[in-house]
Amino acid sequence: MLDALRFEWKRLTTLRSTYWLIGMGLLVSTGVAVLVGVAARNDPVSTDIMWIALNGGAGFGLPFLAVFMAIIGIFACGHEYRHGTIQPTLTSLPQRNRLILAKLAVVLGATLVVTLVSMAVNLGVVYAVWGEAPGLFEDPLGTSLIGYVIYMLLYVLVGFGLGLLFRGVPSALVVIFLMPLIIENMITGLSMIPQLDWLVPVVKFLPFSDGARLMELSAPGDFGPGAPDFDLFPRWGAGGIFALFAALILASAWTLFKKRDA
User: Fold this and answer.
1) What is the pLDDT of residues 222-241, one digit of tens each?
2) What is the pLDDT of residue 207?
3) Which of 114, 163, 236, 253 is buried deepest, with most CB atoms within 10 A?
């Protein structure tokens, strides 16, 4: 297992794309915190301001860092198939379960570290602007930040599973972008049309939307006047749906990986 971990760590740290993706993710996330600080510097620091700053905009539907780290997760397996290195990898490490566990451990470990570094840097921006960060470890902010970390890990797990499932990069990238940004928003929007109200029960089970509720400050919000009652899951229930979605993708990909020739 140690050989597999060393192999995967070497693979991750010798790819230039790893540094570019992490760097861009941190830059954009910190940029959001800086913009919030500049815009609200004359106002007292509030829980809402800190929430947006610390998660780098992910709280209002722009999970920049999660997307960049999910791409690293996709590359963990997708690159091997794209460049034809999966066969020599399996020759060197024929125990497929160990190989996947090593990839998961390294990618999720890197994601956790990058997420905590991002939050620490953004917290530094908050202190630089306001000189304080009230209620950082208190509810609802403290719980939402824990939810944000879990959201990041699950998002990357989905990316990893898609890369392994499709045995490549392009298809996995299409799904990781198309599903949360277009398909789920389209389903939610269409469900508000009276003639399509049969879509209403589906909305509460949309995985990426449920995942985003892990980092909400309060109960699921109002969709506006005339919107149907979606009866959305609370934070941890919604997170469970996202976790189940990630587990299903990973389990399917893992099973096929063990049965396929490569």
Assistant:
1) 555 556 667 789 999 999 99
2) 94
3) 163
Phi, psi angles (nearest 5°) of residue 229: -85, 110
Q: At which residue do the structure tokens 């990839």 appear?
A: 103
* Single-letter residue type at 159: G
Q: How far apart are CA 209 and CA 211, in angstroms?
A: 5
Angle (nearest 5°) at CA 128 between 124 and 132:
85
Tokens of 109: 């470990």
Element (H, E) at 31: helix 16-39
Q: Which two tokens stand for residue 51?
A: 């929430």
Exposed/middle/buried for residue 102 (C-beta within 10 Å: 0-12, 13-18, 19+): buried
Asked whether the predicted pLDDT for residue 160 surpasses 90, the reply is yes
| Neighbour-count burial for 154-164, b at 16+ CB within 10 Å, e otherwise | bbbbbbbbbbb
- Report pLDDT for 189: 84
Which residue stretches of 83-193 are H helix?
86-92, 96-130, 141-166, 170-178, 184-191
